Amino acid sequence: MTVQNQTKKVTGTGNGLASAFSFSPMVVNGLDELVVTHVVDATGVETILSRGTGSTNWSMSLTSFPATGSIQYPADLGTGTLLPSGESLVMKRVLTLEQQTDLENQGGYNPETLEQQLDRLVMIDLQQQEIIDRSLTLPVSVSGVSVELPVPVADRIIGWNAAADALTNIAGAGTLADPVPVANGGTGSTAASTARTALGVAIGSDVQAYSAALTAITAPIMARIKAAERLFLNDQGPAMRPMGGRGVGGSGGLIGMQTITATGTYTPTAGTKSVVVWVVGGGGGGAGGNGSTAQGHGGGAAGGTSIKRITSGFAGVTATVGAAGDPGTNAAGSAGGTSSFGSHCSATGGGGGSVGGNSSGSVGGIGASGDLNLKGGGGDAIRAGGANFSSGRGGDSFLGGGGPNRAQNANGSAGSEYGGGGGGSYTATVGGVAKAGVIIVWEYK
């Protein structure tokens, strides 16, 4: 016999059907040379099985050696369980490390005896090589380094020393807490709810919990936002971003922006080929009381907004800015004025706040003829007497900024952003001053 095959071990995989597992092409010289290990693949747990009878042992019926062949597992097919999927058997030849051949001086010489011993030594080499193949090794280019393990010490980890030429026990490494604290990159908890609290994202206090009602409220708003995206985005980016990038439809980059706060003629920046205009109507004035009756009064509504992209006929047009509605003095506020950009698009002003007991709120202005026409926020309704009531808040425009409400004897609050409505007064005589409209022109080359 010769040893020409380098196979050191053979793995048989379970499928819930097979009971015979071949160890060919590996050659054994006797039954005691075969070691069979049961492996659960998912956990890596290994158990050395015994040869014999019964439901947990293996058997083999070879009668002559050297030989290849197969084993049967389980040995007793009547009571045992066939090897299932996800489990395997590793069959390995393990020889006793000894040499029992004695060649006497001037004794008989049988070449087969010497060959068998040489075969055995090669098999032992393969057996040892299988162990070496599973050991940790250093790259071939590394030299002058010891991989001898240090004496075991409790609660220490093994690492390289300062010279990186030997392994040593490292003190002070501590232990890994379970759960891992937030400071060490963990969540500080084994439960999702307490982990979110430890990370500062607790639902209900740090972040908003899912609410079907809130989703229903925000759905129309999100639809308007998506409509704006479709109108003013292209593959290079948004047309309305400040400076840089490509313009609407990929026609060119943004080269300027003009904010028009008083009526006049629009003169484009040199090189302007197209514009996107935001036209915002004036805010409505807040209502004022009589100075004696404890009563809240209504806030003025915000002006509407029209947004439009224009590619021609924009130079020299009249840009009309809607005035702010007057605040009421012991009277209702007046409506804001209409803003327009020539005949291209316009936006009406917000309604004035109302005075008296518990009437409806004022109505926001509305955009017209634009690619996107938005309604201004309505002014809050007035609220009748008592310390727990307040005046109406001014409506927010597309840019925000309605005047806040009042809950004591005070004049109404002024609108703070273009087109914002003035807040109503509480008891006091003068309503909140509204904010005039505006026209913003984004210019593209």
Summarize this entry quickly.
With 445 residues, the protein is α+β, with helices and mostly antiparallel strands. The chain has three helices and 20 strands.
Explain what the structure shows.
By secondary structure, this protein is α+β, with helices and mostly antiparallel strands. The protein folds into 2 domains: 9-97 and 113-132, no CATH class; 218-445, no CATH class. It has helices at residues 111-133, 192-198, 212-232; strands spanning 9-13, 20-22, 34-40, 45-49, 70-72, 87-93, 157-160, 167-170, 233-234, 237-238, 254-260, 264-265, 274-280, 305-310, 318-320, 339-341, 345-347, 367-368, 372-374, 438-444. The strands form 6 sheets. The protein has a 5-stranded antiparallel beta sheet, with helices on one face. A 5-stranded antiparallel beta sheet has the order 12-15-16-17-18, with no helix packed on it. It has a 4-stranded antiparallel beta sheet with strand order 1-6-3-4, covered by helices on one side. A hairpin with a 3-residue loop joins strand 16 and strand 17. 33% of the residues are buried. Mean pLDDT is 86; it is low at 234-251.
Note the main attributes of this structure.
20 strands; 445 residues; single chain; 3 helices; alpha+beta; five-stranded antiparallel sheet; elongated
